[in-house]
Amino acid sequence: MKNWILAARPKTLFASIGPVLLGLALAYDQIGQLSTLTSLLTLLCAVLLQIGTNLVNDYYDHVNGVDDETRLGPKRVTAEGLISPAAVKKAFISVFLVSFVIGIYLMIEGGFPIILIGLSSILFAWAYTGGPVPLAYYGLGELLALVYFGPVAVWGTWYIQTKDSSIQAALLGIGPGLFSAALMAVNNLRDRQNDKEKGKITLAVLLGEAGARSLPLFFVFLGVLLPFMAAVILHKPFLFPVMIVPVVFMKNWLHLAKGPIDSSLNLALANTGKCLFIYCLAFSVGIIL
């Protein structure tokens, strides 16, 4: 069980929970109530898709020869021989199947938009590092994180509660999307040298060390601006304090800018995930207040 928990990478799950919480807050602000069952199933599906994606990455990075003893990141169970590749593959297929079965209720409730979001989420969770053209190997990791852990997650959660097709929730979802992209950029900064040697083309590899250090900071900076604009446009003064959240993590951003590129970036990655979740939580409270 310990190895399976390691494979699921529970510390990353806040990236999927945060945007859903924001979507629920936006829905509650609009209609004054939420469906408890739909809310819980949405959260569960989001978490399962994140776990499935983590298992896919664990499996395919090993199969594609990216993970080896030089990797700076946390242990991968497939590469370390803790769980067999066949078992990990069976596990991510099972997780995606469970998320699909649970998602049937959500797809019935939300109709075509939720069907499209659900099926494409499973497809891209697999295609991120799997399939004939693994998207993360061609510099698309940050873009996928921004879109699917931002506007897609927030708008989808909001739509299934409100049935309102306005794009407001998608625009506000850019905030957590930017922090999710920053999370991905930190991950790729840490793995830049290893990825370069293994032929995995990430934005960090393409931009070089200086650019790879600047990229997550750029995403964070844009993420700070969004609650300011939302506070002004939506007349929500309690959104202004959301801008303070990333400032609390200033030590983390300084480490990304000037610190060593070694295993210490695992802590920086964890702190970026914490910042993402607190940002979403504060954003949600600011919307409701």
Brief sketch in words of this structure:
With 289 residues, the chain is an all-alpha fold. The chain is 74% helix and 0% strand.
Oligomer type: single chain
Which whole number gives the mean pLDDT? 93
Range of helix content: over 70%
Distance between termini? Answer: 41 Å
Shape: globular
Number of self-contained structural domains: 1
Spans with pLDDT under 50 lasting ≥5 residues?
A: none
Specify the structural class: mainly alpha
Beta strand count = 0
How many H/I helical runs? 14
What is the CA-atom radius of gyration, in angstroms?
18 Å
Strand and helix order: HHHHHHHHHHHHHH
In percent terms, what proportion of residues is strand? under 5%
Query: Which sheet architecture does the biggest sheet show?
Result: none
Give the SSE layout.
Elements (H helix, E strand, L loop, with lengths): L1 H7 L5 H18 L4 H28 L21 H26 L1 H16 L13 H8 L2 H12 L5 H5 L1 H17 L1 H7 L4 H32 L9 H5 L1 H9 L6 H24 L1
Question: Overview of this structure, please?
Answer:
The chain has helices at 2-8, 14-31, 36-63, 85-110, 112-127, 141-148, 151-162, 168-172, 174-190, 192-198, 203-234, 244-248, 250-258, 265-288. It contains 14 helices and no strands. By secondary structure, it is mostly helical.
Summarize this structure as a short list of keywords or feature phrases.
single chain, 289 residues, mainly alpha, 14 helices
